[in-house]
């Protein structure tokens, strides 16, 4: 731990500046190159919680569990680039999606998106601390509480001074360490547990659904909710948006396609540890599935490989924990202070950086407090993804449809959340007429999800066809059935209700069409004057002086 966090701190100190730039602290100035950006996106999404959750999925649902988890998670990264290109086009110098929503609609839509990201990042930070605490308590004399405290302090130390710049630089080293460890550890555990013969000797430990590669149980409880959640994470998550605004605009597609393959291969591979444990008949220590990965490592790895494994897990949780800290700091800096307290023109960059650092400290303290409750990581991830589902259609529509109003955005999100919560937590009995209404909305949600995915890659006409066909084709099977899966139903209902309400309130609107060029004017750097405007003035001045300087062009 001293070597890992000490090395990360050393890297961070090497790039620190005497006076930190506020825009660099939030997005690195929007000029990060391909290698660093792809590595950072991969490392950020290969977090300890995703490793633990993939293994939990493998242990719970069998061999198809990690595939459902990793494949749809990879699809989430892939879906970023078509929408991301549009977002960067209308807001090339923004820092957060919420900041763009403020420029597009106003304060209420901005605070909704910012608030959901504060909640999401705190939950993400908490779940990473839980994963690290479970690892340390399993493999060392330290307790769970001591473990989360040590990890929290280590991540905070190297991220605090340089913010996002420190996060992306350390991500590069961390992803190299993680991928190297995965390549070595998974085969070693597999052969130590029995190798290929394990699939024969351990088959009796599986239920018929766990042994079925096309398990319906795995699809409806794991795969389908994640298909519904991938758009929500792609559009609503500030840790992703921050990297979208940081990478050079011409490198967006290349960066996120590379990260798609890196994430998918790694997470599916790690999930196989859960499948191996299932076949080997291993019971998670204390009945807590969060202990499954460190338990497998302690059982089958030598001391040297345990150190390699430790670096893999600590690297994965650190890369995401520092991303959560920088995401939270950018939200408070840009959305709360920069837009709502000081105002864009009066915001002091030095004050912004100070606020960002204070935010990181407060967020880490909150994460440590909540980590003591040791929530189930898989449940946390599904909940946050579904929560963001209420925002997906209003956010996407706001970047493409110039008639969407602040009222349509705000009301659709609130109504969608009101419909989502009772279904997700089973506060109402989903039988009889209520169950039918739930299934109808969920069926519409299927069409919305698939239609939006098609829209990103193929445009509006294909999206409408896909959405309508998907809704009609799934209706005979879904109605009367989907309400038995409240996690999936809640996510789909959030999509459906937000879409229906947003479209219903937008169509009759008589407000003038929005000019998307206004977003460029209302978002941008906090630290300096508009460099594009300055360059234009210099160019005009140079042209005006040319007749006087014909004889001495070098001047």
TrEMBL record:
UniProt keyword DNA damage present: no
Subcellular location, principal: membrane
Pfam families, A to Z: SSF
Keyword field: Cell membrane, Ion transport, Membrane, Sodium, Sodium transport, Symport, Transmembrane, Transmembrane helix, Transport
Source organism superkingdom: Bacteria
Location in the cell: Cell membrane
UniProt similarity note: Belongs to the sodium:solute symporter (SSF) (TC 2.A.21) family.
Catalysed reactions listed for this entry: L-proline(in) + Na(+)(in) = L-proline(out) + Na(+)(out)
Topology with respect to the bilayer: Multi-pass membrane protein
InterPro entries associated with the record: Na/Glc_symporter_sf, Na/solute_symporter, Sodium:Solute_Symporter
Annotated protein name in UniProt: Sodium:solute symporter family protein
Transmembrane segments: 24-47, 67-84, 111-136, 142-160, 172-193, 213-235, 256-280, 300-321, 354-371, 377-400, 407-425, 431-455, 462-482, 488-507
The keyword NADP appears for this protein: no
